[in-house]
Amino acid sequence: MDSSELRRIANRIRRRDLQAVFEAGAGHIGGEMSVTDLLTALYFHTMSVDPDAPLDPHRDRLVLSKGHTALALYITLAEKGFIAKDDISSFLKHNSALNGHPNRVKVPGVETNTGPLGHGLPIGVGMAKAAQLNGDTWRTFVITGDGEMQEGSNWEAIMAAAQFKLDNLTLIIDHNRLQQGARLADTNNVAPLAPKLAAFGWAVEEIDGHDMDQICRALSPETITQGQPKCIVAHTNKGQGISFMSDNVAWHHKVPSEEQYKQAMAELEEAAQ
Amino acid sequence: MNTPYKNAKLHDCRDAFTATLEALAGQNSDIVAVCNDSVGSSKLGNFREQFPERLINVGIAEQNMVGVGAGLANGGKIPFVCAAAPFLTGRALEQIKADVAYSQTNVKLVGISSGMAYGELGPTHHSIEDFAWIRALPNVPVIAPADRAETAAAIRWAAQYEGGCFLRLSRVGVPDLLPDDHVFELGKANMLRDGHDVTLIANGVLTHRAMIAAALLEARGISARVLNMASVRPIDEAAIIDAAHATGAIVTCEEHTIFGGLGSAVAEVVVDHAPVPMTRLGVPGVFAHTASANTLLDDFGMAPDAIAQSAEALIGRKG
Ligand SMILES: Cc1ncc(C[n+]2csc(CCOP(=O)(O)OP(=O)(O)O)c2C)c(N)n1
Ligand SMILES: [Mg+2]
After folding, report:
1. Rounded to 5 degrees, what are φ and ψ at B84?
2. Domains detected in chain B
3. Assessment of whether the complete model's pTM goes beyond 0.95
4. Alpha carbon distance A42, A140 (integer Å)
5. CA–CA distance, A73 with B316 (Å, rounded to integer)
6. Whose alpha carbon is nearest atom 10 of ligand 1?
7. Which domain holds residue A59?
């Protein structure tokens, strides 16, 4: 699929996400807008997954460790055919399978239940280790938030992955410079991330996390360094695509007013042209 | 919920928590707040304005947060370690065990938005195991206030108490139940209503539901005692034994799994000292489905009406 088509899908996911947050009156819209291009590239360019066989042992695995942006994953899974597009309107409703954090027991395509930050990468290491032991070729991808990288568990996993030479593991850090309450720089600044990962023995690449060509290239198997896990530091914007949300910490989990909703939708529709 | 409190104003107890903490911090410069990127959800914005250097935000790192709290206590500070209850207790449980309970450090653990306050965000964000986890540890009193007066009283108590403790706060609105000048006493229940047919024991956001249930029972000619039992450990054995003798049946109500929480703690006393029939209401050992906090309590049989029905059924089992 070419990158203009990928951009069209990403734009559609953003619009559906905005609508669902507005209708449900909840969601983590900032981090959803920042991760959308990464999810789109993974599901529609890079990963080998089959909605009709969600548990195929040879599928590629994606762990959305920043589970608070579940809605973006749900919509991507719906676009891909894992769940019905109509299901999205049940987001957060009574008895819905789609709660605020992804649940593998209820939602086909979800690999593991996330929500508490700092869980995805250790699980990703285990997945990649299993593939290595089996001699399988499937790949494991983990997406973390940048604030999430403050959790020590990530660094334990980073050391293990390097030690185990897991070149079938790719960590993508959604580096939008913002966490829940403030900028990382004003909280606990883990940046710059790339030299830290490199010092821990990973192959590291920095990209513009909203440039489809760059994302796809960084995810492609040709860019893997043998014997080293790979980290993609994806420079993104929280609230990407919506001017008044972009790079604005207020929009971690704020819900747009009707007027803001209309403006945001108009901006996304214009970008779709 | 249909109710005597129908028109009562509901309050988010976090406001009472932070107002009290700010007042205490103004009087005692050793009081500090420690949090995990939770300035907003712990309502510490005002505290930060007033005492910028005494707000210690370690970032998203709960194990570090509790360890830092223990170190601050070692250095003579009085740390109030504030975080969403599931991450404070679940993520940092070993730090709580080794660095707070076992080392006997003066760390005040404040679990915010506990129980199922996070509703639709789902079970990862629910904290319905924390009574069981923390109650199993020596040296850490476990306290779940029912309203804003009791929250303020418990914070004042914690600040002067020499030792660690766990305060379990919600964000779900509750009406006023206790007088403004309420004084919290560790290990003491408050009888909010006397009665002779059955006793309802509750804490946290369940206390006012139990009060409504008692009113519903009264309308059906059943006299229910209501004990507000904020202190889960140590627990008020005398009040439980007296309730067993006086009413012969006990219903516990908690925003917690029925395995290991308030109901279990009460049952331990009942079996040892005054066996009577009991019903333990709570989350029946499952991960919750998707719903708001109050809807989940209703769905798990803790609507006031359902509590009243459970009490009536239990009375039928009395010897
Ligand atoms: C263990 C844990 N601590 C705290 C939280 C609460 N929380 C949810 S999202 C968030 C901020 C995450 O920031 P970041 O990782 O940068 O994500 P993004 O900017 O992509 O939304 C926090 C603190 C949590 N979900 N899990
Ligand atoms: Mg971020």
Report:
1. -50, 130
2. 13-168 (3.40.50.970), 190-315 (3.40.50.920)
3. yes
4. 11
5. 51
6. A180
7. 3-272
A1 pLDDT band, cuts 50/70/90, is: confident
Pairing of strands B55-57, B198-202: unpaired
- Interchain CB contact of B94 with A (< 8 Å): no
Q: What are phi and psi of B169, to 5 degrees?
A: -110, 155
CB pair distance less than 8 Å for A180 and B87: no
As for how many domains chain A has, the answer is 1
The two structure tokens encoding residue A54: 């969600």
For residue A190, the chain B residues in CB contact (below 8 A) are: 59
Per-residue pLDDT, B319: 75
**Contact between A154 and A144 (Cβ < 8 Å):** yes
- CB contacts < 8 A (A, B): 81
Give the pLDDT confidence score for residue B7 in this predicted structure: 81
pLDDT confidence of residue B52: 98
Amino acid at A6: L
CA dist B5 and B287 (Å) reads 29
pLDDT in tens, B287-314: 999 999 999 999 999 999 999 999 999 9
In this complex, do B59 and A187 lie within 8 Å of one another by their Cβ atoms? yes
> What is the C-alpha to C-alpha distance for residues A87 and A67, in angstroms, rounded to an integer?
18
Q: What is the ipTM of this complex?
A: 0.94
**Out of A99-108, B6-15, B254-263, B299-308, least confident range:** B6-15
What is the Cα–Cα distance from A14 to A178, expressed in whole angstroms? 19
Could you give the CA distance from residue A28 to residue A72 in angstroms, rounded to a whole number?
A: 9
Q: Which of B40, B64, B290 shows the shortest C-beta gap to A94?
A: B290
Handedness of CA A22, A28, A31, A37 (dihedral sign): negative
Residue carrying structure tokens 């904020």: B230
CA dihedral B89, B94, B97, B103 (to 10 degrees): -130
Where residue A118 sits, what CATH number does that domain have? 3.40.50.970
Alpha helical stretches, state H, chain A: 3-24, 29-41, 70-80, 120-134, 152-163, 193-199, 212-219, 258-272
Look up residue A26 and give its two tokens. 């909840």
User: Tell me, what DSSP letter sits at residue B286?
Assistant: S
- List, chain by chain if needed, residues with CB within 6 Å of any ligand 1 atom: A 28, 30-31, 34, 66, 68, 115-118, 145-148, 174, 176, 178-180, 238; B 36-37, 60, 62, 87, 91
User: Inter-chain contact B60–A93, Cβ cutoff 8 Å?
Assistant: no
Residue with tokens 């409703």: A93
Task: State the number of CA atoms in the 13 A half-sphere of B200 facing the CB.
Answer: 37
